[in-house]
Amino acid sequence: MDLSNLKPANGSVKTRKRIGRGPGSGLGGTSTRGHKGAKSRSGYSKKIGFEGGQMPLQRRLPKFGFKNINRVDYKVINLCDLQALADAKKVDAVDIEVLVNAGLASAKDIIKVLGKGQLTAKLAVKANAFSESAKSAIEAAGGSIEIVEK
């Protein structure tokens, strides 16, 4: 076997149906579209979700839920993340820039510090919001908090 006699497996390659190439092909004339009607015309496309006149699924199902336009999506940073950052980078002050450089947040994030985990390092933490448990844990470890407006 060499490159000169390679070919695809039997049955794996089919010749495409060449429609609209004259009556001798058997696929000329209406070119498999049938006679008249919207589907036989060029430019036809049915509406998305159209079910032949039956009430479409998106209209059969009820509307539900509520999207609060005033919702604030916080990027959550836990105390265990701050402790890991203090151990790894030997920092004593944590602000948004430090978190971005560490890969824990992006510059556009609104950051909230939550109280999951233990904090033993004395840190000065600047963030947009703090939970009560996070505040008390940071202050108990000898650190300070500062709320930064976004």
Structural account:
With 150 residues, this protein is α/β, with parallel strands linked by helices. Helix content is 20%, strand content 15%. The longest helix is centred in the middle third of the chain and has 11 residues, at 79-89. The radius of gyration is 33 Å and the shape is elongated. The termini are far apart. The mean pLDDT is 92.
Strand order of the largest sheet: 1-3-5
Average predicted confidence as pLDDT: 92
Task: Please give the radius of gyration in angstroms.
Answer: 33 Å
Distance between the termini: 69 Å
Coarse morphology: elongated
Q: How many strand elements?
A: 6
Q: Main β-sheet, in a few words?
A: 3 strands, parallel
**How many H/I helical runs?**
4
Structural class, by secondary structure, is alpha/beta
Helix content: 10-25%
Which percent band covers the strand fraction? Answer: 5-15%
Low-confidence stretches: none
User: Order of SSEs, N→C?
Assistant: HEHEHEEEHE
